[in-house]
Amino acid sequence: MRTRSVFLWMCAGAATALMFSSCSLFKKKYEKSAVTGWDYNNPKWGGFYVAKNKEQQTGPGLVFVQGGTFTMGATEQDVMYQWNNIPRRVTVSSFYIDETEVANVHYREYLYWLNRVFGQTYPQVYLKALPDTLVWRSELAYNEPLVEYYFRHPAYNYYPVVGVTWEQASDFCKWRSDRVNEKLLIDAGILSMQDIDNEQADNVFTTGAYLAGLYEGTPGKMANSRKSPYRNPDGTPRNITFEDGLLLPNYRLPTEAEWEYAALAYIGENPNPSRKEGKRGEELIMNREIYPWSINPSGLRDQRRGNFEGQFLANFKRGLGDNMGIAGGLNDRASIPAPVKSFYPNAFGIYNMAGNVSEWVADVYRQLTPLDADGFNYFRGNVFMDVYRNPQGEFEKDSLGRLKKIVEPDSIAAKQLNYQRADVRDYLDGDSLSGVTYGYGITSLINNETRVIKGGSWNDLPYWLSPGTRRYMQQNMASNTVGFRCAMDRVGSQEGNGFRTGNYFRQPRQKR
């Protein structure tokens, strides 16, 4: 009897231990704050939500460009005697840039959306965005077919869009940012697809308005699900915030430094680039390449043996009156811009950083910019903005559904140590500190609306194919040789997804 009772007592003890252990297994564990010890994401402890570490996904059409240092500026003799690209060393943070130039079909998609949403209420929005097809006209050339067909005909779908001003290109970037983030929210079940059919001018999705709580969208399936991580402590659904890591940064025009760095693609010169965590490539001295392709950076033709030997690596004008060569042996097979994925990509996988069309970049043009250049993420053109609040302290939308912004008051800038005014486009070159003035249209063709153009085009001689060359045009003007591509900020590791920021060493043991 005693043996049996002992056996039953042992079984009961084992069952109790199993019950407690199973309860501990099913108990939800929360990440704790390293500074307070409080739980993250626990509704009983306030519900402060912290998203798990997420790596930035690559937006549609983009390629990753790992940043670094390089010598920006001229790589050959300044035959134009402009002295506007004096070499200087700068560092560029990692970023994303379009694999190709924006094509006609992409811009027509943009126009279709504008007409569908604003066509009835604000038709001028659509009309303002139309590219200028008259840029193809010339007094002494028969280019009327290009005026009529280049932008509209399906044969030119994937040719780069031209006749677009800097202002129109910037507006396209804003529209693209909103459409990409809207789709991310729909794919995640936060918003419903039915909003696409019901979009109106007074309630259109824009990223800024959504984050400010001013967009009235229809919740998707995940938004109302109890499994959704995006809920308030009381269980009600909430809007996504940027801290959730789901939304992407805005598309924008690349800076001049970013564009030139991406064009040169010095990563292709490294014979042993870093492939995995803990291993790195060698830091090499960069060759001053003339052209942006890696197979023959000092020449215009493919030197590899085979079918492509001797072929031109870009679309350009070989000489006066020679835009494509002789029948039966066309040298670059394109008299005007070619499809955006033609010719040889550089080491980053980016197409047509020389030839095809020149491209708008974000910078304001100054001739002696190299003398003022910041060594880190150089950019001239900052106008610091602030979100507008009405007298009640509330955010507001404009007629296009975008969050209202204003130029930051100088009273705020005056309190800063790192800048003293909001509009610094002419900083040290055109402002009162520099003692330089630009009388636009009188003594100069430059003002604060003059933007930089990079890269040679289909109608340029080889000199302009070098990424270090630079030209300019007013931001409200357009040309049949100028297009654009978009860029995006990179957040997180500078080496890319799968890598950490900084060097991590094995922690040494403490001595007793």
UniProtKB/TrEMBL annotation:
<dbReference type="Pfam" id="PF03781">
    <property type="entry name" value="FGE-sulfatase"/>
</dbReference>
<dbReference type="InterPro" id="IPR005532">
    <property type="entry name" value="SUMF_dom"/>
</dbReference>
<keyword id="KW-0732">Signal</keyword>
<protein>
    <submittedName>
        <fullName>Gliding motility-associated lipoprotein GldJ/gliding motility-associated lipoprotein GldJ,TIGR03530</fullName>
    </submittedName>
</protein>
<dbReference type="InterPro" id="IPR042095">
    <property type="entry name" value="SUMF_sf"/>
</dbReference>
<keyword id="KW-0449">Lipoprotein</keyword>
<dbReference type="InterPro" id="IPR051043">
    <property type="entry name" value="Sulfatase_Mod_Factor_Kinase"/>
</dbReference>
<dbReference type="InterPro" id="IPR016187">
    <property type="entry name" value="CTDL_fold"/>
</dbReference>
<feature type="signal peptide">
    <location>
        <begin position="1"/>
        <end position="17"/>
    </location>
</feature>
<feature type="domain" description="Sulfatase-modifying factor enzyme-like">
    <location>
        <begin position="59"/>
        <end position="367"/>
    </location>
</feature>
<dbReference type="GO" id="GO:0120147">
    <property type="term" value="F:formylglycine-generating oxidase activity"/>
</dbReference>
